[in-house]
Amino acid sequence: MSAAATAWGIVVRDVIRSTRQRSRLLSGLARPFIWVFLVGAGFNGIARLQDGMSYQAFAYPGGVVMAALFGGMLTAISTVYDREFGMLRLMLASPSGVGAVLSGRTLSAALVGSMQATVVLICAPLAVHLTLAQYAAAAGALVLVSLVSGTLGLLVASRLTSVENFGGVINVVLFPLLFLSGALYPTAGMPPLLRAIARANPVSYMVDLMRHAFGQGAEFSLRLDLAALIGTAIVGFGLTALLFDPEQRFVGKKPSGEGRLTAVVQP
Amino acid sequence: MTPGPEGADAALAIRAEGLGRDYGDTRALVGLNLAIRAGALVGLLGPNGAGKTTAMLLLATLLAPSRGRASVFGHDVARERAAVRRRLGLVFQEPSVDGLLTVEENLLFAARLAGLDGQAGRVAVRATLHRTGLAPRARQPARQLSGGWRRLADIARATLHQPELLILDEPTVGLDPEHRDRMWSLLDTERRERGATILFSTHYLSEAEPADRVVMLARGEVVADAPPFALRSGLGDHIAEVDGDGADALISALSDSGVVVVAQRTGRGWRVGVRGGGEVVTERAAAVSGISRLSVRPPTLEDVYFARTQVEVES
User: Fold this and answer.
1) Among A58, A63, B96, B127, which is least packed by CB within 10 angstroms?
2) What is the DSSP letter of A174?
3) Which CATH number fits domain B8-226: 3.30.300.30, 3.40.50.2000, 3.30.1490.100, 3.40.50.300?
4) Is the confidence at residue B314, as pLDDT, over 60?
């Protein structure tokens, strides 16, 4: 009961925080829309896709995944800010322990990612036709995609020591995960090495699952997508629990050494 | 269900035996021996890097000990962390308040972390807001609070689940006298009305005067552990501060007369603790030339601090 209250407290706090950081919320939403509607408008003319599908329709499932991935991972990675500015130690001092804190962070990241991706999903008719059943399937897929995004974000955060690395994570982790996933262009045309990396990339299975939901041609079976994503969530959470060092915040701030020294004479 | 504490340890709020912690090659805390009775107010003093924060984090279960053991109300800090944390309210050196949340939201967050959800959490938050005087600021984002009110919000957060033990690491640092006074009033109420045990560290030594006991740390070791009056009287009846070229001669004369309890070289001259009235100092000073400043006054905890925490180089 106490663990549930702790995890719930973290979820509520993170959701409140994310709704009050309007610029971050808007930039998170702008990213997929810019890709689908601005870059996609140019690609519509040059991209040759099967079934005469427009590039914007092809990229839309990837845009939904992009919103969930960035929203979820960046919220989870903000654990580094909490570590730096003292809120994490407050959570770690809870009687519920590290497991409840990590669960709360994962769920809150998933929820924030879902919220952002839901806005993108609602706007889907601007680029692609979806039936009600496809909408429902996409919403279900979104839950799993966001949960895995939160788990991956927390895994990255578990080894990040300072907020200065935050920008680097976006360039070195998030963009490669997205570009090598088939979200923005089919992996079939990639060189063999990149295609192999794409097959090992969990985001590829997020995008593929969303394509199943959208009724588009998918690369993998639905069963494989679900197995890969559920497996990633379980292994990712387990690894995070192993790698997360609750003492890091305190050990990182070592005592400065000896006190002020002057001579004392006992006559 | 957590098993209850057993034996004599249960009567003590804190017991530590040889509790120590290393950071790599650095011995932050060598071996802390401590027994604090329930309901006591205990000050932990010492220079920066003396091991105060490490000792507090160890007792709060947030660091694992490198050696020794400790218990809080009979519960081992290494093996029964959840049981210890349920009895604990913590205030860290830097405020732990989320600036994007309102004061009320911060307290609700803290209530949930303490396991108080739903109606129980809301009732505890409402009561805490009124008790701490934060009610008029409940809907204000914490980032808009002054440093003093933010610190009080921190105290409110640490006390809302009515912990039996409060551990406060320099809770008054950076506060103006009005907020310091308000904070100590709140903590005094926690002791009087609920019998809470309080372990605090501070660099404002006068704040430790009302404590039942003062524990001084230096270089990771306890160098003094007694009530403030006992520590003060250990330095003699008066403290004389002497500056000028003739200071050495005066100290020598006082030493010959056998009244000096402790003498300590300062940046400008000497600080000596003497037995008996202060007249003996002024009489001897009149016979020595080159004294640019002489003050004689009763000992304070600051004198004890300097005498006990600095390294002995001669004896």
Assistant:
1) B127
2) I
3) 3.40.50.300
4) no
